[in-house]
Design goal:
heterodimer, A: alpha/beta, Rossmann fold, four-stranded antiparallel sheet, about 35% helix, B: about 500 residues, alpha/beta, 11 helices, 23 strands
């Protein structure tokens, strides 16, 4: 069970491969409630793999290591069970579900969470009310929820829709997979404000990004640099600034020099 | 039976005509047989059998003559069934079929609900068609056809007041001979095709509806068909006539018990829309599909056609086909009147060893005629679904327009989906559009749903329902709810 000192997420020696290609080569990483972590790294370093594995994406194979979520073995759980227990992944490329009305999809998600907690399904009226509040909270075009899930959405709309889903599901652990990519500056601000509003002392955010830009809006407590499947450096917000100024080659050289 | 019925308000109660319950099991749950006394004639078909059926129905001579003409034409074809469809089945022995089965040994058909065998009523209750509980039928007048005979028709009084005739076709032959003579076989002649010929010779019952000029039918008309008798075929005949400026929405539902042998269902449906009239015809077809290994099931070889006979008329077919071992069916519209409109909205689902070759024909004859075809095929298990459609623009159809969309969704890797569109255009002013797509429920879509807490199974149903949304929207609300449930039941074992 969770005690006061149990971290929300504890990753030890995680090795992951896909199609016989080793992507993560021993990742150690701990997240406590109330914290915001940023994982930065160049393309192909394994950032998206890390959060996808945490969410339970089937195409990856964990070859070594452990992941404990609230003290429980996360890797043994089906993806839907992880979601019901509060692990949320904002997708880098949200999927289109043609013909599936967003309203219906979101209601199904909320009811799945409630059933998991032993509660009754939400009434349509209560859900409507809640949805309207959340739409306002994350500043999203209310028409988006009348359409089919992500169908014909622009890239920015899809990303905002992810944040709306996050607002509705109220996760304990929010994993944001390059949520900033493809967003113009206004969309980036709106999405970031949404994330900030959802932050509280009982939950935590792990955001994966290539650029420092989003960290101007969402202030991280910890910054980690992922390089070739390993976290090679961790630090405070200043690390992100340094990376932005010096580029990833700087850290690669530093690692190689010390290694 | 109450003598006066006030028109019910159209209430959005999903349970109204539902044949499904909340606890859905994997097996065909309509597979029970009803243990009632049944009057059957010996197997086989010859002129005497045709005469016997006509006699049993107490038909006038002209009807018998009509049947015999059809029979004589049919028999000349020497059992040569059409072979062009993408379906396979062992040869059908037409002498091994019972051509007439009627519940009860009484010669007279029941005249009111009070006279209906309580066991039959109970059976229909079990099916969720509680004829006796009129209030629950909110807004749907039901004609229930068990095997060959119509057992009960509800809401007669109210319909009569509006001048609407809705009755078993056997009654219409006796009571409204002029209408029947004028229109029976006018859209689907007995020489049209093999199964239509067979039906014309041996049809035993079905529904008849006539909507008088300017009348908007205040309730949905529904016929509920069920094959009960083993080894019997069902050959129902439906004729709907919408007179000038009238409107009717007609629903049809079908089930059959689970039997090891195949049963033949060869129905004919004819629709006639006169000037400014509109007919909306919706079908939920859930005949027994056979078991998981492909044993048994209904051969559903049906001819459905409507004619927009006069200007500004409209006929719309919506079908959800989830049952039957084999479906061979092309609900079509002849667009004869200028400015007339034909629509075809279809979901055909095949699972296990089911086969479906279905689609439509839109025959544009009048000027500025318009047709829309939206066909969705879902293939799972080892099922095989074919869309086959014809869009024909005749030389006189100035300004005709057609839009066709065919989408296929594949579940698993052992099923098949085929699209066979035929387009014949003889007028250069015509606009014909055809779109087609084939997709699979992707692992990424499923994972996306799972990541929102939704189980794999529910995710499948959600995506499949989304795929069918355009079609379900065309159905009356209660039917749409039921259609979703039917898909779910039909797909059990194939997903999750």
């Amino acid at each position: 069970m969770t005690s006061k000192n149990t971290p929300l997420l504890e990753i030890r020696g995680l090795c992951v491969s896909a199609d016989d290609l080793e992507i993560l080569k021993g990742v150690d990483f701990t997240v406590n409630t109330g914290e915001v972590h940023a994982i930065m790294g160049p393309n192909g370093s394994g950032k998206s793999t890390l959060v996808s594995v945490l969410a339970g994406k089937p195409e990856y194979t964990v070859t070594a290591g452990t992941v404990r979520y609230q003290g429980q073995n996360l890797l043994s759980l089906e993806p839907e069970m992880r979601a019901r227990m509060g692990v949320f992944l904002a997708f880098q490329y949200p999927l289109e579900l043609p013909g599936v009305r967003a309203w219906q999809f979101l209601k199904a998600a909320v009811d799945a969470l409630r059933q998991h907690r032993g509660e009754e399904d939400m009434s349509a009226r209560d859900f409507d009310r809640m949805l309207r509040e959340k739409v306002k909270l994350v500043d999203i075009d209310p028409d988006l929820v009348k359409r089919a899930v992500n169908e014909g959405f622009s890239g920015g709309e899809k990303k905002r829709n992810e944040i709306l889903q996050m607002a509705i599901m109220e996760p304990k652990l929010a994993l944001l997979d390059e949520t900033d990519s493809g967003l113009d500056i206004d969309a980036l601000r709106i999405v970031s404000e949404g994330v900030n509003r959802l932050k509280n002392p009982a939950n935590a955010t792990v955001l994966v990004t290539h650029y420092q830009r989003i960290l101007d809006y969402i202030a991280p407590d910890h910054v980690h640099v992922l390089l070739d499947g390993r976290i090679v450096q961790s630090g405070g917000p200043s690390l992100a600034m340094e990376l932005e100024a010096k580029g990833y080659e700087w850290i690669r050289e530093a690692v190689e020099a010390s290694g | 039976m109450a003598s006066s019925v006030t028109p019910p308000k159209s209430k959005a109660e999903p349970k109204v005509i539902s044949r499904t319950s909340s606890d859905l099991d994997a097996d065909y749950k309509w597979g029970f047989t009803i243990d009632i006394e049944s009057e059957v004639i010996p197997k086989g078909l010859n002129e005497d059998v045709v005469r016997l059926i006509s006699q049993k129905k107490g038909e006038p001579d002209w009807m018998l003559e009509w049947r015999l003409k059809a029979y004589r034409h049919w028999v000349k074809q020497d059992y040569r069934e059409p072979t062009w469809a993408n379906i396979q089945h062992p040869p059908i022995d037409y002498q091994d079929i019972i051509y007439y089965a009627a519940p009860g040994s009484k010669d007279d058909a029941p005249k009111s609900l009070d006279e209906v065998d309580p066991e039959i009523l109970e059976a229909f209750d079990k099916l969720g068609i509680p004829l006796a509980e009129r209030e629950r039928l909110a807004g749907v007048a039901v004609d229930a056809v068990l095997d060959s005979v119509s057992v009960a028709t509800t809401y007669q009084d109210m319909l009569e007041k509006a001048g609407i005739i809705f009755c078993p076709i056997s009654e219409a032959i006796k009571n409204h001979p002029d209408l029947v003579k004028k229109y029976l076989g006018s859209v689907v002649p007995f020489a049209d095709n093999f199964y239509a010929g067979l039906n014309s010779a041996v049809f035993s019952d079905g529904s008849f509806a006539y909507i008088p000029p300017g009348v908007r039918c205040p309730i949905e008309l529904m016929t509920y068909f069920r094959i009960n008798q083993a080894d019997s075929g069902q050959f129902e005949r439906t004729l709907i006539i919408a007179d000038k400026g009238s409107y009717v929405s007609y629903l049809e539902g079908c089930t059959a018990p689970a039997r090891k042998t195949n049963q033949l269902h060869a129905a004919v449906v004819e629709l006639v829309a006169l000037e400014d009239a509109e007919i909306k015809y919706s079908t939920l077809q859930n005949w027994f599909p056979g078991d998981k290994d492909g044993n048994g099931g209904v051969y559903n070889f049906v001819t459905k056609r409507g004619i927009c006979k006069e200007r500004n008329s409209k006929i719309s077919w919506t079908q959800v086909e989830t049952g039957s071992a084999i479906t061979w069916k092309y609900p079509s519209v002849i667009l004869k009147g200028d400015n007339s409109v034909g629509e075809f909205y279809s979901v055909a689902l095949v699972n296990n060893f089911q086969q479906a070759d279905t689609g439509t024909k839109m025959i544009h004859q009048g000027k500025n005629t318009k047709s829309t075809i939206v066909a969705k095929g879902i293939s799972a298990g080892k099922g095989n679904a074919t869309y086959r459609g014809l869009v024909k623009i005749n030389s006189g159809a100035q300004g005709a327009k057609n839009f066709t969309q065919c989408d296929s969704l594949l579940i698993g890797d052992q099923c098949g989906a085929h699209t066979v569109p035929y387009i014949e255009v003889k007028n250069s002013s015509a606009q014909v559009e055809h779109e087609a797509s084939t997709s699979k429920v992707s692992d990424d879509q499923l994972f996306y749903c799972q990541q929102r807490g939704i189980s794999v199974e529910d995710a499948h149903y959600m995506i499949i329902n989304g795929f069918c949304r355009d079609i379900f929207q065309e159905l009356p609300f209660e039917f749409a709810m039921e259609a979703g449930q039917l898909l779910k039941v039909s797909l059990e074992g194939a997903v999750g």
